[in-house]
User: Fold this.
Amino acid sequence: MKVVIIGAGVAGLAIGWRLRQAGVEVTILERAQPGQGATWAAAGMIAATAELGEAQTPEAELAHRASRLWPDFAREIEEASGIAIGYRRSGSLMIAMDAGEATNYAGRAAADADLAVLTPAQARALEPMLTGDIEGALWAAQEAQVDNRALGRALATAFVRAGGTLVANEAAVRLETQAGRAAAVRTSFGLYEADAFVLAAGAWSGLIDGLPLGGVPPVRPIKGEMLALAPPQGAALPAQVVWGSGIYLVPRGGRLLIGATLEDVGFDTSLTEAAADWLSARAVSVMPGLRQWSIAEHWAGLRPGSPDGLPLLGQTALDGLHVASGQYRNGILFAPAVAEMLRDLVLQRPSESSAFDPRRFAAR
Ligand code: GLY
Assistant:
């Protein structure tokens, strides 16, 4: 069997790798460089609780399932690639900045044995840089993080070492159909025929010609700007990921990543002073000492958003074409589960109907 995947982000690479391990001949077409889109721009949090709250939804179920897969997935990637990806359970400390948040967190902890409510003093014992102006915190010790930039490199290496073909700097421009099914992908340089295709091009997943009416994934870019702060001499980084005041702070490689803005402004990835000021002000409101830290990096990325906020994972309205997109804020978190799900769907292994079926938009 031959499969062509469009997009070498975390999803396309992980799906390609899993398919390759199942004996499939896989080519991944990437418009730029592997792992350099949202995969690169992300903060690498494996944070189902912090991202999705207490909701008992299919998306939360997917997030928790993926979280459970992550330790083995990370170990396997490191072994296959020889590249460390820094997966670690650093925990998430969610700060209650007001009484309403504190009440909400107390309710969540009461319903989930993996969560603990902390008093302001306990939260500050865990993270001494926190402002004195907090009402408490929720501690999710199981939550983890991974170095997403290393992850992109490692997955690309694992995929190629497994015998996959990775074609960079070659954008898929058109899908060719034959007898009502996907038959080939056309790029500026050639035609790639296959038995099945996976569209995993993140925010760019809707930008391919040749799809039937209703078959274009309704994915749109949601811009996020982020900062990395460098500590002054002698200052210690937090040990855990901290959430509060509408932002998150992630210790990574001697820097503190601060994210992120959420903007629906098309494919614009320009860096703005307004975003840097907003992120800095929020960070200082959570940890006043960060005023002394300097901005080491400022970047932007585009998340793939969908009309109902849920991912699009599975068969499209066109036979032979699958999609793995719309992961929005959770592409890194979902990756191991998405890879298994798409592998099984492409191989036509039995699967349950899913809330993420892309055909839910086909009638629009
Ligand atoms: N997962 C965090 C973000 O998308 O900003």
Q: What stands out?
A: The chain has two domains: 2-83+148-219+307-361, 92-143+220-305. The chain has a mean pLDDT of 96. The pocket of glycine is lined by residues 43, 45, 224, 259-260, 303, 329 (CB under 6 Å).
